[in-house]
Specification:
binds N-oxalylglycine; binds manganese (II) ion; alpha+beta; 9 helices; 8-stranded mixed β-sheet; 3-stranded antiparallel β-sheet
Length: 297
């Protein structure tokens, strides 16, 4: 019987990030004790994978709300339910997107390493992605890397140099690299740039991590080019191949990740088969806490 402490099993998927959770049925209400184990595993492993979860939007919202309140979807074209972001490679009539269709821009933005909602004044805690239509032949992996491990493996001198730096995150910037996606300008303007420290403390584990993202436009007080080079260097550092967990999707997988300390990207955009995933986004708990000087070094 699923959803008991006895049925629950949590097994690491990779030496640095990710665990597979078995013995739970997320379409059902979870008890406090089982949910507490899942939350603890989430804080420990940063990415959790649940297989065979044939969940609907309402059930997904219900599970997601156990963590915290949900963010509303930023763009009207992606939301039927205000809390569920529908991401797919099809147009409104259900046909595969052509190479020049505007909606394709969202897929391209997701194919750069990023962390979700880093461009908001309070960045997201978690994203919960449900595989509603997964291609059976074409791969469509999502890749994950830990910014905590990235930070921990930096030489002390480099960590010291990063202390006190502040990044400017801006969705208009990352979207603008590819086009406007058909998003009305007023909606893009409703997401002005946000500033966050480049180092942060995880509010639940107390561990320090980098906080970099493809949404970073510049670093405060640095020439734009230099700031972007620094961000690219740090992202490349966190995402060295042996540090990356690549999730190979199966139909009805549900994958959740910790936006406070991980990077992710869509590794490929399927061209011939439909892929549709639904995302709920759990709000962060407040502004980001920077490490004190003792924990930084
Ligand atoms: C997202 C995202 C990647 C993917 O939903 O935030 O980046 O593989 N998705 O769909
Ligand atoms: Mn994303």
């Amino acid at each position: 019987m699923p959803n008991t402490i006895a049925s629950l099993s949590i097994k690491p998927l990779h030496p640095h990030i990710g665990a597979l959770v078995n013995g739970v049925d997320l379409t059902q209400q979870l008890s406090e004790v089982v949910f507490a184990q899942i939350r603890a595993a989430f804080n420990q492993f940063s990415v959790l994978v649940f297989r065979n979860q044939a969940i609907n939007d309402e059930q997904q919202v219900g599970f997601s709300r156990r963590f915290n309140a949900l963010e509303e979807v930023s763009f009207s074209i992606a939301a039927q339910n205000p809390y569920v972001y529908h991401l797919s490679n099809v147009d409104d009539r259900g046909h595969l997107l052509g190479p020049n269709e505007k909606k394709r821009v969202f897929l391209k933005v997701n194919s750069r390493w990023h962390t979700d909602s880093s461009f908001k004044p309070i960045p997201a805690m978690a994203s919960i992605l449900s595989g509603r239509k997964i291609p059976s032949h074409e791969p469509a992996n999502t890749e994950f890397a830990s910014m905590r491990v990235g930070y921990a493996s930096l030489p002390p001198e480099r960590r010291k140099m990063l202390r006190g730096l502040v990044a400017i995150h801006h969705y208009g910037y990352s979207l603008g690299l590819f086009g406007d996606g058909g998003v009305p300008l007023a909606e893009i303007d409703s997401l002005p740039p946000s500033q966050h420290p480049l180092l942060r403390v995880h509010p639940e584990t107390g561990e320090t991590s980098l906080f970099v993202s493809g949404h970073i436009e510049s670093i405060v007080g640095m020439p734009v080019k230099e700031g972007r080079e620094l961000v690219n260097e740090l992202i490349a550092w966190c995402t060295r191949q042996e540090y990356v967990y690549s999730h190979s999707w199966e139909q009805d997988d549900l994958v959740m990740w910790d936006n406070r300390c991980t990077l992710h990207r869509a590794a490929v955009i399927p061209e011939r088969e439909i892929r549709r995933v639904h995302r709920t986004t759990v709000m962060g708990e407040g502004s980001i806490e920077e490490p004190s000087s003792e924990t930084t070094l």
